[in-house]
Model the fold of this input.
Amino acid sequence: MNEQQVSQLLQAMAAQTKAMNRLAESNEALVTIIVQTLEEEEGIDTAALGGNYLSGKPRG
Done:
């Protein structure tokens, strides 16, 4: 693999990483909305279901 190919591969990997991060953020936002809906409309205590994302960030 030559230098140009390596550079192109690294650029593609960086773009893919950015896209994956955006997807993870949108999934996190969706989970937040679902948790809020369960709490407000269904009266479910979501704290009992677990409180953190895999990243360690608090859920909800």
